[in-house]
Structures are given as structure tokens and as C-alpha cells.
Amino acid sequence: MNTKLNKSDYTVIVIVYAVTTLLNCIDYYESDNNLIEYLVDIPAAILSSFGVVLLFVYWIIPNFLIKKKRYFHLTFWGLTVLGIAGFITFVAGFWTAGHDWSTFPRWNRLLSISVFELTEEVGFTLGILLAKKFYEGQAQLFNVQKQQKENELKLLRSQINPHFLFNNLNTLDALIDSNAVKAKEYINRLSLIYRYLIRTKDAEVMELSEEIELAENYIFLIQTRFGKDYSFEIKKDVSLEDKFIPTGSLQVLLENVAKHNKAAGQNSIDVSIEVDEDWLTVINNKSKILSAEESFGTGLENLRTRYKLLSDQELQIINTESKFQVSIPIIKLSSEL
């Protein structure tokens, strides 16, 4: 916590002392005090207590609490400076009130009076200042954490495998010679994907309907490249309105399927995308032949991390000998972000 006083801190101090001065003047008036007591006692109390506050803020708290937790030193020096300032204030008040010096308190009584003379005023001022500093620090910490969260999400979103473009250009090169019509459609779908990636590069979440549209374009690329090795089915029997998922997360799940599975013979990899009110689930049968294709996605761990930053819900994974299933929570912006 930064204990140095800023302009707003001094404004608070001025307000506190203005109020306490007014109350002291009223109290002195009702007690029929002499003018000299107004002129000496009140300024002495203000200057002494303000001096103690400054010593706490700039010396005692930074040295004996923040830098090194020396609680004995904190207590000792706190009571010492409070006692000295209180002694000065008490002596000034004793003199202006015209008391007989023969009645001046003995040392043990004087020690107690000196320590407690300014305790309320110093404690109240310090309490307000430290509470203000604490909540300002909490607000600053929240902003830093929010910015860090946004930076982490952008970093995770930016981790797109460069092989994605390379592989698709190879596929496109082969299509131009063999099927010009399909090559044109391939270029169109690929451009739609890149436009989406550029448009959503700073978006933490996107509407599920748009993510499914991206997935449909990506599925076209996979099926064009691998033929009948992969088959896809999208089941969306519920309304997609007001449903969101982390940007690009469905693409990540499809990439994961292509990365870890390769069709064997006539047996294709069947992929089902199912959407209900609360979950989006991708299910695929597993092959015993691992694909040599590198994933250009950020992977399940990346997606898991993004969910930790965006929601209090987590991915659910079911991995059996014959089936791999990943369910991701659908985000409702009004309740989760």
C-alpha cells in the first residue's frame, strides 16, 4: 500500500481538522474559555496531531509495518511520538487555562495524560486516511487484475498455429488444377474464416450462432482436404439467442479432433456437435491411428485457462477407449461476465 499523501488525502485532512476545530470552538464557547485558549490550545492541538499523522504516514508505518513487520518498534515509536505531541498540547492547555503549576500532574499521571491527549484526534484522522488508502489500493488492484486478465485472454487468442495457412494453401494449390469450382468455394470459405479471426481478435466471447457459422466454414476445409475421413453433424435443437462461448473455442475443439484422430480404411471419424441450453458438446469416435497433422489451435489446456478467466464453470471431458467427449459451458453474459 502506498502511504504517501496525495492531493485528495490533504483535502480529507483539511475537512477533518475544519470540523474538529469548529466543534472545539463550540465546546470552548460553552465552557466560557478565555481568548488565549482559542488562540493557543486549538492551533497547538492541530499542529501536534498533524505532525503525529505525518510521522505515522511517512516514517513509522513504512519502516515498521510495510517494509519490515516490526510490531514492537511500531508500538514503541507510535506511543512515543503520540506521548511527546500530547505532552506539548497538554502543557499549552495547562498554561492558557491559568492553572496553578503546583497542581501539575506527577510523572506517572502526566505520562498517561500525554499519550491519550491526542489519541482520538490522531486515531480518527489516521483511520480515515488508511481506510481511504486501502479502498483506493483495492480499486487499483482490481483494475490491474482486470487488465492482466484482458492481456492473458488476448495472448491466448493470438496463439494461432502458422501451419494453418500453409496447409490450406497446399490444399488450394491442388484444387486449382483438379477442381476450379471447388477451389473458388475453398477460397471463399477460407477468406470468411480469416475475416472472422480479424474481426474478433479482441473479443473475449462471441455469440454461439457466429461460432457455429465459423465451425461450418472450418468443417468445409477439413472435408475438402481429407474427403470422407471425417463426417460432421451439428445438432442445434435449441434457440441460439443470448448464448455465448469463448471466441474460437468451437474451432479449437474441431482442431483437437483432427489432431488426435486419423481415419483407418473405411472407418471415418464421426464428429457430433450438440447444443443444449447450458452446454456445447463435441463427441467423436476414436481411431487407433494418430494423425500426423499438427493442430493450429491453442489446445484444450488453453481453452481451459480461458474459461477460468471468463467463468466459474469448467470444461468437462470424458475420455474412453472408443469415444472422446468435450463439453464446454455456454456463457450467459448477464450472470457470468
How many strand elements? 7
Given the C-alpha coordinates, what overall shape results? rod-shaped
Radius of gyration, rounded?
36 Å
Structural class: alpha+beta
Strand content: 5-15%
The helix/strand order is HHHHHHHEHEEHEEHEEH
Terminal Cα separation, in Å? 28 Å
Oligomer: single chain
Keywords summarizing the entry:
alpha+beta; 337 residues; 5-stranded mixed β-sheet
In short:
With 337 residues, the chain is α+β, with helices and mostly antiparallel strands. It has helices spanning 7-30, 35-67, 71-96, 107-117, 119-158, 163-178, 180-199, 208-226, 249-260, 299-310, 333-336, and strands spanning 205-207, 230-236, 244-246, 269-275, 279-285, 316-319, 323-329.
Please characterize this protein's 3D structure.
64% of the residues lie in helices and 11% in strands. By secondary structure, it is of the alpha+beta class. The longest helix is centred in the middle third of the chain and has 40 residues, at 119-158. The protein is rod-shaped. 23% of the residues are buried.
Secondary-structure map:
Layout: H1 7-30, H2 35-67, H3 71-96, H4 107-117, H5 119-158, H6 163-178, H7 180-199, E1 205-207, H8 208-226, E2 230-236, E3 244-246, H9 249-260, E4 269-275, E5 279-285, H10 299-310, E6 316-319, E7 323-329, H11 333-336
Parallel strand pairs: 2-4
Antiparallel strand pairs: 1-3, 4-5, 5-7, 6-7
